[in-house]
Amino acid sequence: MIRHLLSGADLDAATATQILDTAAEMATVAGREVKKLPALRGRTVVNLFYEDSTRTRISFEAAAKRLSADVINFSAKGSSVTKGESLKDTALTLQAMGADAVVVRHPASGAPHRLADWVDGSVVNAGDGTHEHPTQALLDAYTMRSRLGRLAGLSVAVVGDVLHSRVARSNVLLLSTLGAKVTLVGPPTLIPVDIAAALAPGTAVSYDLDAVLPGVDVVMMLRVQRERMGDSYFPSAREYARRYGLDGPRLRRLPDHAIVMHPGPMNRGMEITPEVADSPRSTIVEQVANGVSVRMAVLYLLLGGNNR
Ligand code: NCD
Q: Which end of the chain is least crowded, N or C, by CB within 10 Å?
């Protein structure tokens, strides 16, 4: 097993499949009255969040607690970070406290990679800037596999603000490793030139959502990340929704078996209408539940589970 999970590219097909299979076993714990396994008793997991988060932070906390680890939640707000403490000094503090795993979210792309040089424990990237978010890609793959029965050969459209999306990058890497075919869809201003070739050859790009929808098994909508946009990348929210929003009529263009995904948080009415978000085709709430099982599997496998 790998020591850190920093990128979708850290996972070969065998390792990714092992994580998904372990997650399926972890999911059975969620159905029990006592949702706890003793696997990580006595181990310490630190959640180090320098960026706002609802579901990812809670998900990692629930995952570590269900494995009986001791969990320390650190949020930059209210810490010495606001006094100017560097990531390195924070890392040395965590190291001194004996963290076995550090789950880190940071606005700077690459911050988890730096952290991995400074601590002895495992580092899990929970989202770094616009770069990567590998556990989100794993929970998305898990959701696709459990709904559609396989990943190899699936056609997946990833739609919207690809430019600012770490979810898109990690998904392209992981899905192509697992044999799915990804098409990135959005306005040309939000799809970086050469991204497909740089991440995974075989990834397609389209600027025409309506043309892509009838041929996909999965449509994954991305949040328009206005907090990361210094300039305007499209004329107006209305125009964006008209061209790239998933609404009722577009939902009906999908094949009957196709599913609709979104990592959350959603801009309802922008990239997705409430009718679509709340439809039976949507797996949005399931993705959140699956996130806990997948993160349990990641922490369990990275920390060596019962073998230490
Ligand atoms: C994503 C993130 O933070 O990268 N959300 C998540 O982790 N569930 C996507 C987003 O913020 O749009």
A: C
Phi/psi for 132 (5° steps) reads: -150, 160
Same-domain check for residues 38 and 123: yes
Phi, psi (5° rounding) for residue 142? -60, -45
Instruction: Give yes or no for residue 264 CB within 6 A of ligand 1.
Output: yes
Closest CA to 94 of 63, 73, 125, 68: 73
Atom of ligand 1 nearest to the CA of 127: 4
For residues 208 and 250, what is the distance between their CA atoms, to the nearest angstrom? 12
* DSSP string covering 173-211: HHHHHTT-EEEEES-GGGS-TTHHHHH-TT-EEES-HHH
224 close to ligand 1 (CB < 6 Angstrom): no
Q: Contact, 58 vs 71, CB < 8 A?
A: no
Q: How many angstroms separate the alpha carbon of residue 225 from the centre of ligand 1?
A: 9
The residues pairing with 125 across neighbouring beta strands, listed in sequence order, are 104
What's the whole-model pTM score? 0.96
Residue 257 is labelled as binding a ligand = no
Q: State which ligand 1 atom lies nearest to the alpha carbon of 51.
A: 3
Beta-carbon count within 10 A of 39 CB: 18
Question: Do 297 and 226 sit in the same domain of this protein?
Answer: no
Domain around 31: 8-132+288-307
